[in-house]
Amino acid sequence: MTQPVSTERVRDLIEPTRVHGSLYTSEEIFQIELEQIWYRGWVYVGHESEVPDAGMFVSKSIGPQPLIMTRANDGQVHVLHNRCSHRGNLVCMADSGSTNSFRCPFHGWNFALDGSLLGYPHPEGYGGRHQLDDLPLPHVARTEAYEGFVFASLADDGPSLIEHLGDAADGISRLVSLSPERRLDLRAGWLQHRAHANWKLIVENETDGYHPQFVHGSIFSVGDSRIGDLYGEHSAALTRDFGNGHSENDLRPEFRKNDAPMWWFGSSEERVPEYAAAMRRAYGDDEARRIMVDGSPHVMVFPNLFIAEITLFVLQPLSVGVTVQHSTALQLAGAGELNRKMLHQCIGSAGPAGMLLADDTEMYERNQEGLGSREPAWIDTRRGLHRESQDSDGHPIGSANDEIGIRGFWRHYSSLVGDVELAASTRP
Amino acid sequence: MSVELSEATRREIEAFIFREARLADEHDYEEWESLWTDDGHYWVPAAGIDNPDGAMSIINDNRSRISTRIAQLVTGRRYAQSPPSRLARSISNIEIGHVDGEFVVRAVFTLIEASRRGRHTWAGHVQYRLRHTAEGLRMASKCVDLVDRQFDVPTLAFLI
Prior knowledge:
- The complex is a heterodimer of chains A (about 425) and B (about 160).
- With about 425 residues, chain A is of the alpha+beta class.
- Chain A folds into two domains: about 45-155, 3-layer Sandwich (Rieske Iron-sulfur Protein); about 165-415, Naphthalene 1,2-dioxygenase Alpha Subunit, Chain A, domain 1 (Alpha-Beta Complex).
- Helices cover about 25% and strands about 25% of the residues of chain A.
- In chain A, the strands form five sheets. In chain A, strands 13-19-18-17-16-15-14-22-21 form a nine-stranded antiparallel sheet, sandwiched between helices. In chain A, strands 6-5-4-7 form a four-stranded antiparallel sheet, with no helix packed on it.
- In chain A, α9 (about 275-285) packs across α10 (about 285-295).
- The longest helix of chain A is centred in the C-terminal third of the chain and has 14 residues, at about 355-370.
- The radius of gyration of chain A is 23 Å and the shape is globular.
- In chain A, about 50% of the residues are buried.
- Chain B has one domain: Nuclear Transport Factor 2, Chain: A (Roll), CATH 3.10.450.50.
- Chain B has helices at about 5-25, 30-35, 65-75, and strands at about 35-45, 55-60, 85-100, 100-115, 120-135, 135-145.
- Chain B has three helices and six strands, in the order ααββαββββ.
- The chains are: A alpha+beta (about 425), B alpha+beta (about 160).
- The interface of A and B includes residues 191, 218, 328 and 346 of A.
């Protein structure tokens, strides 16, 4: 029998080595999260390479809110609300495309890709043309990009993107440096995988090195995957808490032990000769070799961007118990034959039928159902606490399968929502 | 692509397709795998994709990956299908053509999946390429075009 909890604020549900199950099941807490995290902080929206030319757009989202990311005639990327400034209709129904303008089908208002209102039918009803300059298709409050990764914040103030990313930015830079042109090209299309589970279960799993050998044992036993060993008991890999809720499963110590270029991808330079040659031309032999040994990062950027070596995942919470996982293959500009191979591996592992993600998602859904059970009321997050240390940058680190990243997630989460008071009726 | 087919051929093709559906419904993985030719291609396109080359797919299995998919299911630890969903699919609107020595078969299917997650209706257009081999009729490709592929879909770990 667990002790009753005295809860007045969300922070009472979060302790250093355990969190309360209601965090995953409470409608009230989900609404608090939307307001305090998703509609306030920096959230990943899309990549500049998805709209390479002026006139291009892609439909995006922050949680349940629909957005459009465009490349306007000014050459800039804009993130706009997909909501007509007249009566709130969707102005864009396509997932992606090229257009001169967005015309709202309801009453014909017409918007440029930078959001400005180009015109409206029967203008005499408003006293003539150009009377509604205060009604553009609204931009999100703030948009910033890092290495082509476009983030938005729906709040006017707060930390800058670079402050938010902190040292997780290094993970993004490492990914980009895998391209001989230092550029990603994310245009392979998207899988959209619905999980009947709370978004935080998914974020925690992205940084959980404890589960792969169990959840993914079936595919490790029939394929030639080395992932199981990378997270095994004797792995030299690390889990790192970057702060601000970001975390990393740093596999470089294992890759460096092997000291073979492209081993991280289960390959070799000989098997991707165009790519290896392009890398050596771009970086010189020593640096190219170092990058190809170190491989692609495994970094979770709070709250919704997961860089998983060969796949980019974007999390979209729709309700307390439903989250959509958007996934696409990481594709590197100038990488020759490597892109086709990365795409092939990504499709095999990610999405609704993926040989990894289908089983991960099964676990999220069973976990969500299990949390419907009220006893025991808490979830344990202490794994590896006794062997936690710090790296040279002062970040907490632990072994490959410790719950360092999970604890870091909750510490940051508590700093964002902890002060919010819970209604008396929903206190556990 | 319409050609005159003998009634016997038409019946043979329909029987093959119904058997393929039953083996998938019943999770008879190894029997299902034996329906494939050595160059089989199993494709479930993603949103907005008309050509699998260079683009994401829900499934884009060459013959080797079909084997891996089956081997994973056979372990019994493919948790997304362990325990397995209960499945019932019907196939109709069958049209049969003949191109370059292969039968090109188009059909429509609806499938109810019952699992702990709930009931889910899957539906779509399916296209098979079938070929006569020394072992009899075999499947050289199967493409399943889900009606809802432009939206998010739940886990799809059974054989669609």
